[in-house]
Each structure stands twice: as structure tokens, then as C-alpha cells.
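Quick one, C-alpha cells below. Sequence please?
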């Protein structure tokens, strides 16, 4: 009994919330990890000689080590002094700063995924082209990375105080990195797989692949925005940062197009993100303002593709029919609308459970 009583004061000193400083440290470390990921994608895209033991893999995995230390060090330091390291799962969980539980899990998922990746390469060789995106070991690594980088966003959403873009910038960048993980692993279809709408009129195969990319990307950017709206974490300028940052990273990694084309579509993404910010500012969508929420969910992806395709037609030329080009915009809006119903339904359910 004396031992239990003595342990209680130590347990009360465990952290309840991560300091904003930790968010910045994780973002800085995650940038290293993300750079390695995109460097690896760049090397695959250019067909460079590859193996597990390459410089880009070294940067990628060293980025993981740095990110893991940034996430786990506060947990270890917060563990009660004098308490056995085998004190139990509950004590370890209590030592995790609020919002970083998924990030801690991501460290272990990624670590196991790294061993899995080495084993997979040894058994089946190095993946090329789309195989690199579909490889189970790579998707395990991507899952771990997504969990780790989600920490700053989840932690910020747990705090009572909010703020503008500067105060929430680590959380906003966290969402941008999360979007980047999704778009990286769906590079086979989307606005960065190729220039949708350019060139001669497409055959059915190219048209269907393009529509798949439209659906995926529309769902991703709308879903990210709705999640941030639910947590009241979408200050003015956030969508410009999220969509623009993603575009810069994806386009530089892809890298095959002339520099003026790359810059043009970076500007397209930044402009579309700014339009999304204006929509949030004017509409103030939320679960309590359902009509405004629906309008935002339709307009944001539709306007992204309207800007994108408009630039394609005006700058690059297009042999696609007016039915195909306008239909893409409409279907992007439909994807957003359907997603808003899922979002609204899950929000209402969460409120009932609370």
C-alpha cells in the first residue's frame, strides 16, 4: 500500500498536453523524413539505379530516426522517476503528451515497416514504376509516416486556445504533410500524374484514369479541409499553405515537365488554395451551418479543377471536348458533396456518443 501511495504524486506530474514547441520540433524532424521520401520518389521517377542501400534511403531512414526521437524523447523524459521501466502500459500511455498517441504508434508501425521493406526487397527485388506505390512494405512505411506527422495537428486540436495562421502553423503544415503522404501514394492518378485535359481528345482508358485521379484528389483535399473545419483548425491562409505546399513538393518530385509548366501548376494550386480560404472566410462552414458546409464541399474541389483545366486550355491547349472538361468540374463537386454527407453523419454520431 505504501508503494502505491508513493507512486501517485509522480503520476500526477505526467503531461496533459504537448507544448507548441514540441509541434515545431516534430515538424522540423518530419521535414527531414518527407525530404527523404520525395527524394526516393524522384529517384524512382527517373529510373536511377536503386537498392535498399542508397543515399535517398539513408536520408529517408535517418529522417525517421530523428522524427522518432522527437516524438519519443518527451515520453521517456516524462516517465516518473524512480518508477520501474516495466511500470505498465497505463503509465507509459499517461506519459504521452495529449495528441501524440497516434504519432507514438506511428513510430512503431514505421519501424516494423522498415524491417518489412528490407525483407520484401530481399525476397522480391526493388519495385519500379507504379509497383513502388503499391508495394505492401512501402504502404506500411507510409502509414507509419502519416501517423507520426499527424501529431502536431491532433495535439493543437486538443488545446483550448486557437489562434490565427501563425499560431496554428505547425498544425497546418502537419495537414499539408498528411495530404502529401496520400498524394505521394496515389501518384498513378491525379493532377500530378500528368497534365489532365492536355493533348488530343483522350481514349476511354485515359479518360477513365483521369477521372479516377479527379475523384481521388477531390476527396483528399475536401476531406482534409472538412477534418480541419470540424476541429476549428482552418484559419485564413491555411488552405493556401496546405494545397500549395503539396503542389510544390509533388511537382518538384515529378520533375519531368519544363520549368515554366511546373511553375504554372504550382501557381494553380496556390490560387485554388486561396480560393478555398476565401470560401471558408465568406461561408464560415461548420456542422451548425449545414448549407454553407455543403456549398463549401462542392465549390472547393470544383473550383480547383475549374482553375486547373482553364489554365490547361489557355496555356497548353486541349483537344478534349467541352463535355469532358466541364463534366470533370461537375463530378469533382459531386465528390465533395457526397463527402460532406459522410462528414456530417460522422460528426452527428460523435456528438451523440459524447
Amino acid at each position: 500500500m505504501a508503494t502505491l501511495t508513493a507512486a501517485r504524486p509522480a503520476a500526477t506530474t505526467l503531461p496533459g498536453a504537448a507544448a507548441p514547441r514540441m509541434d515545431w520540433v516534430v515538424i522540423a524532424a518530419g521535414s527531414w523524413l518527407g525530404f527523404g521520401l520525395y527524394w526516393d520518389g524522384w529517384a524512382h521517377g527517373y529510373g536511377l539505379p536503386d537498392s535498399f542501400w542508397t543515399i535517398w534511403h539513408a536520408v529517408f531512414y535517418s529522417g525517421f530516426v530523428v522524427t522518432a526521437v522527437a516524438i519519443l524523447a518527451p515520453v521517456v523524459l516524462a516517465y516518473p522517476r524512480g518508477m520501474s521501466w516495466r511500470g505498465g502500459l497505463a503509465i507509459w500511455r499517461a506519459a504521452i503528451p495529449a495528441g501524440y498517441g497516434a504519432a507514438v504508434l506511428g513510430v512503431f508501425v514505421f519501424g516494423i515497416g522498415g524491417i518489412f521493406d528490407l525483407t520484401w526487397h530481399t525476397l522480391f527485388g526493388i519495385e519500379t514504376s507504379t509497383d513502388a506505390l503499391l508495394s505492401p512494405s512501402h504502404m506500411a512505411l507510409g502509414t507509419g509516416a502519416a501517423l507520426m506527422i499527424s501529431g502536431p495537428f491532433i495535439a493543437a486540436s486538443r488545446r483550448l486556445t486557437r489562434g490565427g495562421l501563425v499560431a496554428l502553423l505547425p498544425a497546418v503544415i502537419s495537414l499539408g504533410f498528411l495530404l502529401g503522404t496520400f498524394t505521394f501514394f496515389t501518384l498513378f492518378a491525379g493532377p500530378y500524374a500528368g497534365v489532365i485535359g492536355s493533348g488530343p481528345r483522350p481514349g476511354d482508358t485515359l479518360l477513365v484514369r483521369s477521372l479516377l485521379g479527379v475523384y481521388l484528389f477531390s476527396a483528399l483535399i475536401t476531406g482534409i479541409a472538412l477534418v480541419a473545419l470540424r476541429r476549428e483548425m482552418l484559419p485564413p491562409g491555411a488552405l493556401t499553405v496546405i494545397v500549395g505546399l503539396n503542389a510544390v513538393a509533388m511537382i518538384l518530385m515529378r520533375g519531368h515537365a519544363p520549368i515554366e509548366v511546373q511553375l504554372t501548376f504550382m501557381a494553380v494550386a496556390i490560387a485554388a488554395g486561396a480560393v478555398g480560404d476565401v470560401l471558408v472566410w465568406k461561408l464560415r462552414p461548420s456542422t451548425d451551418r449545414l448549407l454553407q458546409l455543403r456549398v463549401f464541399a462542392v465549390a472547393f474541389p470544383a473550383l480547383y479543377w475549374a482553375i486547373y483545366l482553364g489554365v490547361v486550355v489557355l496555356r497548353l491547349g486541349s483537344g478534349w471536348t467541352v463535355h469532358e472538361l466541364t463534366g470533370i468540374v461537375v463530378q469533382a463537386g459531386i465528390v465533395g458533396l457526397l463527402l460532406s454527407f459522410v462528414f456530417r453523419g460522422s460528426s452527428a454520431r460523435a456528438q451523440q456518443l459524447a
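The radius of gyration is 22 Å. Residues 79 and 164 are 33 Å apart (CA to CA).
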